[in-house]
Design a protein that fits this description.
The chain is an all-alpha fold. It has 13 helices and two strands. It folds into two domains: 173 residues, no CATH class; 71 residues.
Length: 245
């Protein structure tokens, strides 16, 4: 039907909307439709109605996406506040399989039950492996959606701050991915507030031989950077220290 409307009438109808005559939020949709029908030309009426329809269908999905993003953020914050593993697992089933959801779930489960080896391994498996996962690791202390509550931001920000500490605890229990653990230090310390290198100290002291072996597997260039800018593995001393807030 839209093709049957002459081009100049379609353009005029669009101009009415873009100039604000039918602007959603300033006038009701009913007013816009009524105004269009006052013009005694069926093809022009069709153009106005189609433009109105396109505006509505464009606005609604965007609003729904924002609402969904805030619902997801609130669910993640609820997971981070859970006080028991059974309660957390019920929410886990609703959160989906995104990396952010698994990150919150796995680390909170580990905090609730550090003796459970499955929880230990679940944390270690989530050491970031690419730039997207690294960005998520460091994004929870900011707003995840437009209307996220301050309480939820604080909850998720607090969990983010504990990630290096929790990961180091898990590595002390099961140091089976030592190379991945020390390799991620370069990316983590790009956040000036990250205490990742500081948390590595306990792992280095407890598993010194494994730690040195993992460092030796680095390329010469990466190893030199690691040992001069990030961490001294000989005496298990952090070089890259977090900036004060």
């Amino acid at each position: 039907m839209f093709r049957l409307v002459p081009y100049f009438q379609r353009r005029f109808a669009v101009r009415l909307f873009t100039k604000g005559y039918f602007r959603i939020g300033h006038h009701s949709l009913g007013t816009a439709a009524y105004t269009a029908l006052q013009i005694n030309d069926m093809r022009f009426q069709a153009a106005c109605i189609l433009v109105l329809f396109s505006c509505c269908t464009g606005v609604a999905p965007a609003a729904q996406e924002r609402e969904a993003a805030c619902s997801d953020a609130h669910l993640l914050a609820r997971m981070a506040r859970m006080k028991s593993s059974p309660a957390l697992r019920k929410l886990e089933a609703l959160a989906g399989e995104s990396y952010r959801s698994r990150l919150v779930s796995a680390f909170r489960l580990f905090e609730l039950d550090q003796a459970d080896m499955n929880s230990v391994l679940g944390v270690i498996e989530l050491i970031p492996r690419n730039a997207d996962q690294d960005a998520i690791w460091h994004s929870m202390d900011g707003s995840l959606c437009e209307h996220e509550s301050v309480e939820d931001m604080k909850t998720l920000g607090s969990l983010q701050a504990r990630l290096p500490h929790d990961l180091a605890k898990a590595m002390n229990r099961q140091p089976n991915k030592m190379y991945e653990f020390i390799s991620y230090a370069y990316d983590s310390i790009q956040d000036p507030h990250s205490d990742y290198a500081v948390q590595m100290q306990t792992v280095c002291r407890r598993h010194h031989e494994l730690f040195l072996s993992a460092v030796s597997q680095m390329s010469e260039k990466d190893r030199n950077w690691f040992t001069t800018k990030i961490f001294n593995p000989s005496d298990c001393r952090a070089i890259a220290l977090p900036e004060a807030d």
